[in-house]
Amino acid sequence: MTDFTYYAPTEVVFGKNSEEKIGKLVRKYGGTKVLVHYGGQSAVRSGLLDKVCAQLEAEGIAYVKLGGVVPNPRVSLVRKGIELCRKEGVDFLLAVGGGSVIDSMKAISIGVPYEGDVWDFYTRKAFNTECLPTSCVLTIPAAGSEMSNGSVITNDEGNIKKDYCIDEFRCKFAIMNPERTFTLPAYQTACGVTDMMMHTMERYFSHEDDMEITSAISEAVLRTAKQQAFVALSNPEDYEARTQLMWTGSLAHNDLTGCGTSGDWATHMIEHELSGMFDVSHGAGLAAVWGSWARYVYKLRPTRFARYAVNVMDVPVDFRDPEATALAGIEATERFFHAIGMPVSIPELIGRPATEEEMQKMAQMCTDGDTHTVGVFKELTSADVLEIYRAANR
Ligand code: NZQ
Ligand code: ZN
After folding, report:
1. Is 307 near ligand 1, meaning CB less than 6 Å away?
2. 250-280 pLDDT, tens per residue?
3. How far, in Å, is the centroid of ligand 1 from the Cα of 194?
4. Residue 276 beta carbon below 6 angstroms from any ligand 1 atom
């Protein structure tokens, strides 16, 4: 087991009408002037945004609004948000939306007290932990940003997608009302399920497997996401299924499934280049490359993949041949992705094969020009990453 610190300070307020507690929560955490940050249209159409603002007004808390966050959130809007917060004297941030809105809010939170350009943090030119307090009303279970320490931002110039992770980014509170996810399109529901599964799998496929409680929690998280996906896709207004998925998404990425393991994260790094370059949904990008990553690395520890195959994917165990069981588990995962409408290759993801030049560029960017490897299960060089893109391009 790897020694660990578990830090999950976010106050989670979960259930029907939980957004009615917003005013009191903002006050509790010291907010006096709030930036309400949101995305395209979903929170406006559903009336959620108006309800959130009404709660702030009822509590006598001043606010300004900034919408327009797009999936794969852009640094250009983050910069606008920073300017707005400075001009208006904002001291507390509230995101209404999914991972993109929450990540954009986190970037604004660190940019406000910083004199330089906020992108410096994402390129590792600057390191700082001073930021405004953050909070959210979650509308899609997926990225897990509501409890995570990460923010992933895309630079509009060059479509470069980078993350910055500090504990100070963790939300003071997260409001989660599963009813708010009834309006999710099937594709976004499936992307979310894939992402929460991948957050668990990135930690599960590690070199340490002696932390039995963590392995068992991870398998429960994965089985729950898999089962409830079908229920939510067949009936988008199934409250119980939406409930399971919403909490599963948070548990998958609040580090609970990583206690005692080192984690891998190669699939995420490989995917971030795809969503940076082609502006595709993060969850779909993960589904498109995971099988190729898994086939590239599984021989390093076939027994771990075999355990996953049996305990998560219900594959019958072949005691004489763990590699065969492992491979059957990878295939079953890809069948599952297809069954929920996810791609399992780059052509399925972007509608055409990637060119060799595009794949070489992504492999270079993924390793910052071969200055570091990605992943821990197998430390991948840019040549390895390129092979994985090529395998996923068939
Ligand atoms: O913009 P609107 O109109 O709100 O539409 C959104 C968006 O088009 C829509 N949506 C959200 N809630 C809805 C809804 N539509 C109808 N009803 C609702 N209730 O869904 C679309 C996707 O939203 P987005 O926020 O982009 O989804 P997600 O939560 O999957 O976030 C993806 C982003 O998070 C990053 C990803 O890279 C990507 O940029 N990640 C962030 C992480 C973190 N901070 O810890 C970790 C993840 O691994 C991930 O990298
Ligand atoms: Zn993810």
Report:
1. no
2. 999 999 999 999 899 999 999 999 999 999 9
3. 12
4. no
Residue 201 to residue 347: CA distance in whole angstroms? 23
Tell me the C-alpha distance between 319 and 354, whole Å: 39
SS3 label, residue 162: strand
Q: Write out the two tokens for 71.
A: 């999936």
Contacts of 83 (CB under 8 A, 6+ apart): none
Closest ligand to the CA of 272: 1
Q: pTM (2 decimals)?
A: 0.97
Task: Render pLDDT for 278-313 as a digit per residue (tens, 0 to 9).
Answer: 999 999 999 999 999 999 999 999 999 999 999 999
Cβ pair 272, 152 in contact under 8 A? yes
pLDDT in tens, 336-355: 999 999 999 999 999 999 99
- 41 CB within 6 A, ligand 1: yes
User: How far, in Å, from the CA of 124 to the mean position of ligand 2?
Assistant: 20
Q: Would you say the C-alpha torsion 143, 300, 367, 164 has a positive or negative sign?
A: positive
End-to-end CA distance of the chain: give it in Å, rounded: 38
